[in-house]
Structures
1.
Amino acid sequence: MFDGLDALVLARIQFAFTVSFHFIFPAFSIGLASFLAVLEGLWLKTGKQLYLDLFKYWLKIFAIAFAMGVVSGIVMSYQFGTNWSVFSDVAGPVIGPLMAYEVLTAFFLEAGFLGVMLFGMERVGKKLHFAATLMVAVGTFISAFWILSVNSWMQTPTGYEIGANGQFLPGDSWWTIVFNPSFPYRLVHTVLAAYLTTAFVVGGVGAWHLLKDSANAHARKMFSMAMWMAALVVPVQIFAGDMHGLNTLEHQPQKVMAMEGHFESHPNGAPLILFGIPDSAEKRVKYAIEIPKASSLILKHDLNAPLAGLDTIPDDEEPPVGIVFWSFRIMVGLGFLMLGVGVWSLLARWRGKLYQWPWLHRAALVMGPSGFVAVIAGWITTEVGRQPYVVYNLLRTADAASPLDAPAVATSLLAFVLVYFTVFGAGVWYILHLMRKSPHTGEYGVKRGDKGPIRTAGITPGPTQDPSDQSRRDLSGSKHEPEDRP
């Protein structure tokens, strides 16, 4: 039944599907780990129970999101070996060590301290537990560092040599590979996006509970902290995105051409196309709504600066313009909506109505999942805009795929779709179930099992005894009779 399908297209769909599912969990856990560290730090500094309650409330959600992120990431290595074996072979000498560094420096750090963070509140000192929380937060950032370095090298490859067998080999310095030209911009832009994703989730949950009870102290604190993040960080993110775009124009001009919808070159200033329908067959944007020369102003800071179009690029080098054009606008549009909510919250705070404006709370609730949509749209812009290459200008996507038949790829794709929607759908439902409940004083946090670990070396725990009985046991384990017994 799958013989008429293209194996390459199916492999790309499968990778896009699994990576999109995976991406939303780290995008949430990176920001949430730092938020937890801030909450615990404020609790230690002020001693206020409210911060500890919020810490335990969000710790349960973090544990689930972190687990789903780890599980969904395992599939990536599977696909590299099955669907993209040529890419693994050719780029492995460069990509492999960077991925190994991610495991050694980040994943082990997170895994080592995660247990203390989840279950150690009553077993270690406050300062040591806070240190464990900080290490988990730092570990999530280090993980993003290495993963984004790998992705950025595929976008702007530097520091490599071509071996006799056609493999990409590291050159004289690994620093040139790690800190490739697009990496600093992509790192800042993506990490800020993760923080904003978490901020709007927290703000949405706080808004939900404020709509039900505007006097809820826990909801007030959540909403206030999230709105400060939105008001202060969104402008920084917009600036970082602009810098990232200028870097992309320098190193990947056809990606920017697709983002802007510039099928033709503009020697005397290019318009900013706000909306329209790109038509790659006719090489134009139909029904375009545009601002004259505004694109040159944004990209070159000069109204009359010339901008090259896709007419300077061979047809087989062009990325899919329609997808890149609209994914970019979704990302940017959501960014400005986030800015609007942040400015609105500042006005409400200034008027002393931050907790009494229900329309602001409704807007924050609607914008709760906006960060996830924005990061997926940004990822699509980045990855589809790089096409037709998997390693930019060096290795085409069509040449990187494994020699598989369409039925084999389609079968695994269907399996992934079924399993992902079942497993991760249940996980997301449970997270939403936890969010629906309001934080309360004495929040219990992550529960441990009552029976403790399973012993497998022939030693089994005895029955629980009353402490008062223990003093009555002799060395043989039998009880003494009470002293006043005749």
2.
Amino acid sequence: MAERKIPLGPTYDEMLYPDTIDKNIRQKALRALKEDELDPINLFNITWKDENNQVRKIVLPKALTGVDANIIVMLGNGFPSGSHKVGPAYSTLIEGCVDGEINPGVHTILGPSTGNFGIGVSYICRLMGYKAVVIMPDNMSRERYERIRKYGAELELTPGSESDVILTLEKTHEMMKNPKNKTLAQFELLPNYRFHRYVTGNSAIEAVKGIGNGRIACFTSAPGSAGTIAAGDEIKKAFPEAKVAALEPYECSTLATGGVGQHRIEGIGDKMCTLIHNVLNTDFVVLINDDDTIKGLKVIHDGIEILKKMGVKEEDALYMRNLFGPSGICNILGAIKMAKYLRLGPDDNVVTIATDGFDRYHSVVEDLERRYLEVKDFVLERWARDIFLRASVDNIFDFRRKEAKERLFLQKEKDWLKFGYTKEYLDSMKDMSFWDREYEKIFEYNKKIMELR
């Protein structure tokens, strides 16, 4: 193994339970997270847990949400590179490494993405010694491109915006004809599912301990690759009554209505039902107006006095400033809508995710300020009340019935048969045993990583 020079990082177990990592390695990793983000020891910081082994989260102030239920947001900005997308990027690469399919110095890694996964791929490849090419639309925030280049990856840009990810997939499949190129295909490879079902799902279950009734009534997640929503599979195992809601831009309602369109929520709403989306456990699809997520981001980041006026404590308002991006605000709005729709009370918990923080969206807020004539405090106050406190239960679609699921299966066929997947393979995904078998592979990979390390 030594001649392959692969820096082997954590197992799935160690990503979920970082307290099981050798104490010297754990302490070195925590120091590196603050001092040198390009030190490969940062692989051991791929976890939802902080230095005290507690899930990084915030329980949103009810003065902001306007609902009785507790809305708990797991925070992805504490991962190395600033987003939880390093988790599935690492998981996909390490599985290929230990299987002997991907070798440094031989293979170039392709990362199809609309942003955060591309950042994660470029970061992980930098740490693990691989050349990386990130394939993404040419209309994403400039901060994303800058960070990818900072980590040393090349960019291959395809026409269009957030919802034109199908073009990035077509470009990726074209580049895969060269045997030297190996793809970390987040939309179709199941390490993404495994990471989120095991690591994110079980972290969510831990996150609600001591809050309300200690159970999860609802989990909301806006699918991009539909990796994160796999956490719902594990949540439902622990809390069978839990509901899972997939969120989409109103402007690109592919799952809800088969609609397509351009939108501004980077990282989600990709005009498809991804291959790794287990639609068996998607109970609801909720539409969120894209501009509401950008306005909501502006309110949280710049409306400290407005939030205080609404009853949010100053220290909470200041703490929240940099915790979210547009997709995080989308997830929060979906959580508020579902809390109202399900008529949840003060003992009930809704869990959601903030994929990243504000640091990669300055240009998005600048664009908002150009599009609106005024963004003074009285405008922010109106936005805060309209977007958060007056969030409606409109555009919530119930997908629990068999015929609703069938529509999603047909959408998956439309999207994936053209990429070489067979109908038999797609049909096998209609049974939970498919997903459970894929999930169980975690324990094989734990063993392989430990043996090679």
3.
Amino acid sequence: MRRVVVTGIGAVTPLGVGIRRTWNRLLDGHCGIINVNHTDARFADLPCQIAATVPAGKRLDGGWTASEWLSRDEERKMARFAQYALAASDEALQDAGWSPTTFEQKESTGICLGSGIGNFDEIYNTVVAYDKGGYRKVSPLFVPKLLINLGAGHISMKYGFMGPNHAATTACTTGAHSIGDAARFIACGDADVMLAGGAESCIHPLAIGGFARARSLATGYNNAPEKASRPFDADREGFVVGEGAAMVVLEDLEHAKARGAQIYAELKGYGCSGDAHHMTAPKENGEGAYLAMKKAMKNANFQPSAVDYVNAHATSTVVGDAAENAAIKSLLLGAGGKHKASEVNISSTKGAVGHLLGGAGAIEVLFTILAIHENVMPPTINLERLADGFDCNYAPKEAQERQIDVALTNSFGFGGTNSSLCFARLQDK
């Protein structure tokens, strides 16, 4: 099996356009969650009126203006989640210095891009138009803009990538599955380079209303949105929907070395599991999460004691955070692991960017990679008070400088789908 490394990263997030801006603002404790009543009057009827939106504005200032990234024709044909992914891909490819020109290079470069919900606005608007005006009100672009795999399709066509063209859609585990699957394409020899990640843009009154009816969202912070997402905090009450995209360039180690590419980290392990339990809630003991992490560690051939940091899925729900916390402690404490809970380093970055759904696992992979690359543990903002059982180090409110050579990042989704990825500093160059 070939070794897989990360050579490029790119992102569009509620903290800004560009991974460096996002990362710096994350470390400084900023939050991208806002009240969205001004965007649509229908939000005022919902119990949750907040979301983590990509800021509008000039690219130079870290804002999003589609025309700065896409032609008018591209913007017309592409769903918003795919637009974000295209921008993140452009940044990641430039960061990696990878611009294939020959047939052989393009044939050995693939893409794996997923989304959890995809083009929600297109579905809603087309249903309303069809109901009012019938067949002729349906756009010929309706189906192409609806299909989640068209995100990968558009990007592959723009850059001429003819390697594996894959799209995972596994709810909030999508981004992690996309990156893990892409790594396996490289490890098994199906590609030398893979562009991989996740994207989402479904901040719409109906989508927010649906999550609210499922009792998944924070509803008590409409007047203080920056305080709403509070992973591990005793007063947490639900997640905040976010949008954006994150992409990584994964590469066969020998291929990267041969072209002198920068290497951020090595993807050492990938584990997946299923809860087989409930549509939206995990098992309270975190068994599914535990199994995913255990498989990732086995795949990476590391003992629990080697893990310096865990970027948790921790969305700020009462049951979910507690279950994951229990799973992490079960894995990392005891035989072959840490001696006490205070030695277990965990943080959740969702306090700052909200929950990007299908893009969550991908942006958290980028944060995990940078944690290793720069030896800094990003903070868990809004962590004011810990409940019983939460006795690890969660980097409350402030980033922590520490040696991070091995890290896990977790993603879990509705339907009980779980994934964990293990990254490590490249030791033998």
4.
Amino acid sequence: MLFNSISFLSHFIVFYLIYYFSSNRIRKYLLLVFGVYFYSQWNLNASFLLFISIIFNYSLANYLSDLSGKKRRTFFILGITANLIYLGVFKYFLFVWELFSDLKIGFGFPGLEWKPEILLPVGISFYTFHNISYLIEVYDKRILPCKNFFTFVIYDLFFPLLLLGPIERPGNLIPQIESEQKITKENIWNGISLFVWGVFIKSTIADPFSRYVEIQAQGFESLEPGILWIVAPVIAFQVYADFFGYSLCAMGLAEMMGFRLMNNFKRPFFSSNPSEFWAKWHISLSTWLRDYVYIKLGGNRHGFFRENANLMVVWFLAGIWHGAGHGFVIWGLYLGLCLVLYRSLKHYGFVKSGNLFQSVLGVVFTFYTFSLGLLLFRIHSPSETILILKNLSHLPKLSSIPLMILVTTIPLVAFDLWQEWKDTDRPQFFISTKPFSFLIMFFFFFLWFSLFSPFGKQDFFYFQF
């Protein structure tokens, strides 16, 4: 069930009416049942795999709390390793298998004829990181392990963020599950506003842009020279509208139920440098990698060279996390190099803060650096990198710029500008308990959707990760 579908909306309305009028104790069971039902709609077998992960991590965290010394550390390492193997088998085994087959062919041996069929559970990268952060927090004694099994199941099966995040920290979500959910009119109107805005930008920007990209970038060798200078920003807005749209839907649904999720995006396209950009894009993943990988490796505590080496390790892992393929690895290393280059320029005094011209130039450069990097997601073999570079060696024709694309982005850019002007920490419509303001906003969205959005639904972009 996609958030932007009649099927999900009809199911959620029935669920929410029962949830709203139920006691707090009953609400917990409703969250559990709807979470199981929601995830099982994607694949029933994947639900069993998720429950295996839930039982393992719940049991291990409680066992860790009774241990100390070397034994505690040993079981903690085994737990993290088991989660990574679980993720690796389902997400990366086929890639390694095909790579091994290609290597055999390269050395003159016959390739592997048999190819295993392995199910890739939806959202496995997100809920595995969810569980790893839980084990780390318990091991570091920042939180106590859940004694109530159902609380932990709800933590892992909380349906607004189950498929695509944000990768919510256990220290934020579990206490909310354990406490009483108080639902105010402000919760309801703000939640509905966030959900409607999320569905709107998904339907009117992400889906049409996705179709444009598929038409333009089916094969790099047959593209019009220079067209990737135009296609790359379209991909950037497609991914942003798609993932930001999902995050807004998740935040909105949670808020309607009395929960507050972390904000996953904070106007990243206004960032003037790569460091700022990754502090505002996919914030839950960026901070997860910072806290659980970068800092654990030593962070910036061992000199400038070691700091940059740690960054490269983090972004290599970020690339692999996004998917098993040549393009994802190259993408991670590319972004790591961009960050290292910027930090080196800043370290040696080539970048100065407070320079308006440099800031504006930085916004354009940062946006295009990110946009061009997204082309790497579409690489199926290293040789296609050369085709991308050859295409980018030409300038595009002005006639190739699709006017409809520029017009379609207006609501999203205007909204982000408004939020930037208000300097909000999380998306806000400032309508709270004013239904009339909401109806005006809703009418504008519906009108824009009717004018510009072709009908037809696309899966959320990050489902593949």
